[in-house]
Amino acid sequence: MLAEATSPYLRQHADNPVHWKQWTADALAEAADRDVPILLSVGYAACHWCHVMAHESFEDAEVAAAANRDFVCIKVDREERPDLDAVYMNATVALTGQGGWPMTCFLTPDGRPFFCGTYYPKPSFLQLLSAVAETWRSRRAEVEQTSDHIAGELRSMASGLPGGGPALAPAVCDGAVEAVLRDEDTVNGGFGGAPKFPPSALLEALLRNYERTGSQMPVATVARACEAMARGGIYDQLSGGFARYSVDSSWVVPHFEKMLYDNAQLLRVYSHLARRTGDPLARRVADETARFLLDDLRRDAMFVSSLDADTAGVEGLTYVWTPAQLAEVLGEDDGHWAATVLGVTPEGTFERGASVLQLRSAPDDADRYERVRAGLRAARRGRPQPPRDDKVVTAWNGMAITALAEAAFTLGRPEYFSAASECARALLDLHLVDGRLRRSSLGGVVGSSMAILEDHAALATALLTLHQATGSAEWLDAALRLLDVALDHFADPDEAGRWYDVADDAEQLVLRPSDPTDGATPSGASLIAEALQLAAHLAPEGPAARYGTAADATLSSATVLLTRAPRSAGHWLAVAEAAARGPIQIAVACERPDSELLAAARALAPGGAIVVGGATDSSELLRDRPRVRDSDAAYVCRGRVCDLPVTTVEELAAALGPSV
């Protein structure tokens, strides 16, 4: 029953006349017993077109009668079961040339796909249901042959990263950066045209290239993209936080859903940009994005998945404004001024004469602007609000923990670090069951789906980030246990550096997913490379060697992707840039946790750096590293090459300049 599901998306469909079932062995067995195909529908709670298809078809009695009669109908939340989503999205793209959600697939009872598509309006969907059912009844041999062929092709495609690439070296990173920079939209910022997605991982990688090379081009590209997004409609000018993407190339009109994973990644980018450049806009956006996470996406110490694109069935209803509405809330003078500052026009930039708020330049009166923002925020709270997907996903919470911890030191906000620590503790308490990690939970009830590679990797990185900040062995031990599980159950035993996205003891599907490319979120393989790289420097000597060997093999396997498709390897490039310079390690020998030098190290450290502090020999990086002449001392190393210790903030800042 969907009503008991641990997914709000599935619960949305509990009352449909279509007799939806969850993906279980019993549901597949029912299809075999009835000798009917499976209708598989995959989506997620914040998906606008998923809602449209639900209203048009899944809530319709005529459609339901046909679907229930001729199929076993299974509904899947792609965020809860990314393994199923990956398998059948590969099939959809292979058969149609494109993918997306809602995804609509027809399967044999044992799960082999034979027809796939995405959104269908009711008339087309009814025709499709009839045609598929008739084909199943009258041309079964063709269906079996087709499904066998598709399953075989999917298995051959799921071979992971191709071998034969060059060894990982700074030149590989530089070549990837040059290719990425050639694709920049220098007019609007970012990369590519409409629809335009925040290139979070690529921006982080470019910042790390700047730290290694000192080249101004990468950091200028990052600054252009970050400013364009922050001033555009994709950014919530009233309450902070970014929408999923822009439907145009100028960042004006967003697809209004707000995802935890986007905002966690962008918080990290803006925080690191603020560290390096001191840009006040980057600093403000980092602070507001962190507040958005805490105010709008936090529940029971953990972070929920998303805010919907629709409000009361209308996309963007909560967020858009007309000049008359501004005047009604603010009065004529402030309303007219706000319309000018925030780009609200009589014609509108969205639909029905309404506009998405933008801030194309700094306002001429900062105090007035803050007063206007406060008034509009208060008025907006009185509007209908978008639904929230309260599902807690392990990987995305791991990303949020890391970003909040790093932002806390950039911004001097200890409450952000406290929130990160509380989230990590809650995740470990709820999502670790009998020593194994689960993918998600809802309302304090953990789901049955086992965690995938990205969950282990993102949470391990988060725990290692907390360990660096606190020195606590609790966080280190928990992270290393996750990495050991990953090495034992997700690493390919026959090919060093290759990873599967699902464990070797997980449910066996048509194929075992292994996708190394970075998308809206980094791939599990690139995330595990980051976690292993950190562990190689933070773990005790024996385990550290194992993690270091695995990190090197994993990064070496990515060089083909970095050379052939760097836009699809953003997080790989970020991790590779850190590897190409060591990564930077900063060990501060100090007597007190509030050491000024340690605080400076954490606030100045570039992305990918490792920072620890404490007494001599209190951690691996502080072994045999004492204070100097009764002063706290910072030891800065790049790889195995170390500078002389420094004892002042000014000396440390100079030591952390780009390594040219």
TrEMBL record:
It comes from the Bacteria. Pfam families: Thioredox_DsbH. This is Spermatogenesis-associated protein 20-like TRX domain-containing protein. Gene3D superfamilies: 1.50.10.10, Glutaredoxin. InterPro entries: 6-hairpin_glycosidase_sf, 6hp_glycosidase-like_sf, Ssp411, Ssp411-like_TRX, Thioredoxin-like_sf. It comes from Mycolicibacterium iranicum (Mycobacterium iranicum). Residues 2-154 form the Spermatogenesis-associated protein 20-like TRX domain. One of its GO terms (biological process) is carbohydrate metabolic process.
